[in-house]
Amino acid sequence: MGTLCRHPSVVKLISILSRVMLTAVFFVLACTSPCMGDPFQSLAPGLALGVFHLSPKGDSGDRSPTISLLRIDPRHFRFKLITQNVSPPKVATLKQWCKTNNLVAAINASMYRENRQQSTGYMKTHGLVNNGYINPRFGAFFVFDPQKPFLPSVQFLDRTRDDWRTLITKYDTVIQNFRLINAAGKNLWPRTSKKHSIAAVGMDMEGRVLFIHCQTPMSVHAFNQALLGLPVGIENAMYVEGGAEAAMCLHLGTTWRLWTGRSEHPFLGTTPKRLWPVPNVIGIQPVKKTIRPLPHTTPGE
Predict the structure, then answer these.
(1) Is the pLDDT of residue 243 over 50?
(2) CA proximity to 273, closest of 249, 243, 300
(3) What's the pLDDT at 17?
(4) Spatial CA neighbour of 81 closest among 290, 296, 278, 301
């Protein structure tokens, strides 16, 4: 019996059953897509939006957390890191970054230091090094712009299992952040009473990138559990920002959709909803010069 439990196929089955159980625990009450097969609403070829309203369990109190995900197919969109190493640094809201760089969508690239410029983890793009220091506390790398055509156009690297030291030299863009979950579907964060909005970047089992935002203040542990319970096939995820500055932006045709962050203060209460200026942003641009939204698609909450 002990040998059977260690068989790879049995281990994989147990992992799948664990995710099914998480889905039951974090019941998805509603989503934007009317299609039962895919909980995402198609916005354009290679771009879809999923909005999931969760039951108010765990540390969110009586509030019903909403997690919004933009699902991006790298075959239709290229990724762009907007960063800098100049002084004084230029900061702008995600909406402003989208306007000036012709981005279809954008999300925070990482947390940053007091100088409002430098990322807290390793960050480079096309020869521009924002931070050349490998942060020993951060276990995830999001990489794109490969130098060789045989490499995946975008991927996540896990410091605990990948040959990351070699691979980060083979990509022109590298962003280092905290891991949220690993490929085995494990929540990597401990329970805590600290709650705030969260922005994250992930990847599903089909290699599509996920921009993820939750405005309702939650602990990171509860957020991770919710992600693992969603029917989105998530495989990897990394934390990019928390609190009032955690944001996400969508610009499709004439439609703008903005997700803002909030944080809870023990004396001042919850911060107001607004877009805050940020220095480093991950955005997407269509591979083709023009992008036509699918008919009758209106991004919703």
Answers:
(1) yes
(2) 243
(3) 46
(4) 278
Residue with tokens 């029917």: 231
Q: How far is CA 180 from the centre of its chain?
A: 10
Q: Does 3 have pLDDT greater than 50?
A: no
User: What per-residue confidence (pLDDT) applies to 253?
Assistant: 87
What secondary structure letter does DSSP report for 246?
-
Is pLDDT above 60 for 9?
Answer: no
Cα angle: 39, vertex 296, 71; to 5 degrees: 35
In tens, the pLDDT along 199-229 reads: 999 999 999 999 999 999 999 999 999 999 9
Under 8 Å between Cβ of 196 and 206: no
Q: What's the pTM?
A: 0.83
**Is 103 in a helix, a strand, or coil?**
coil
What backbone phi and psi angles, to 5 degrees, belong to 99? -65, -45
282 to 13, 94, 97, 253: CA distances (angstroms): 35, 10, 10, 19
Distance CA 226, CA 188 (A): 13
Q: Are strands 140-146 and 154-158 parallel, antiparallel or unpaired?
A: antiparallel
**Structural domain boundaries in the chain:** 2-286
Query: What's the rounded Cα separation, in Å, for the pair 37 and 34?
Result: 9
Tokens 């059953």 found at: 17
Angle formed at CA 245 by CA 250 and CA 229, multiple of 5 degrees: 70
Dist. CA 219–CA 139, nearest whole Å:
19
The rounded distance, in Å, linking the Cα atoms of 249 and 270 is 21
CA distances from 132 to 101, 121, 135, 168, 175 (A): 25, 8, 9, 12, 11
The predicted-structure confidence for 69-106, as pLDDT tens digits, reads as follows 999 999 999 999 999 876 677 889 999 999 999 999 99
- Phi-psi group of 251: left, alpha or beta (phi > 0 → left; psi -120 to 50 → alpha; rest → beta): beta
Burial of 208 (0-12, 13-18, 19+ CB in 10 A): buried
Both structure tokens of 35:
């299609």
Q: Is the dihedral of CA 250, 251, 253, 257 positive or negative?
A: positive
